[in-house]
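Standup notes
- DV: blocked on the single-chain target, sequence here:
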Amino acid sequence: MEREKKAKKTPTGKIAEKKLDLSFVSLNQLEQLTGREHRTIKKRLEGIELVDTGGQFKKWPAKIALAKIYDAEREPDEINGNQQKARLTKAQADMAELELAAMNGQYVKIEMLETEWASIVSNIRARFLSMPSKLAPRLSGISDARLVEDELIKEVYEILGELSKYEPRGNTTASITEFDESDDEALLAATTADD
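- DV (later): unblocked, structure below
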């Protein structure tokens, strides 16, 4: 370590050396001790308060500063046991919170959501594709274009009404075909009244 030499004679006649107090260190001292550039040191010591030690410059507490400099360089596998236990405990607590939220219906698994939406889209697609064969017999005898349009609109709103009324039921997959037809008739009446 660095020592500051002062020529003082002891009672025995030997020259005594005064040790430099390194409990607080300056930026230059940290550069010499660590071999790091001052920019690197300053960046790693951001947030650590400088202490006025009565000298020309404020200094950092040596133990804190050196630990901060060298902790930034450690590999993840060098983390001490307490830090690993704390990370594990936090991960377990986070997982328990997610599981509780899922049980309370606040969250669902992505796979479940994908399956649910695939089912919904498939049912809607099937309903739209079945429209021509379902409506052709009913519309074949109608020559008034306005009545044909009304029948088509009614069928489209019926299908869209199913989609708008869909509500998932917890962990079960609800069928898209479960709906109250009277609500669709009210929706159709409201939309045709606007025309």
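- Follow-up: The CA atoms of residues 104 and 170 lie 9 Å apart.
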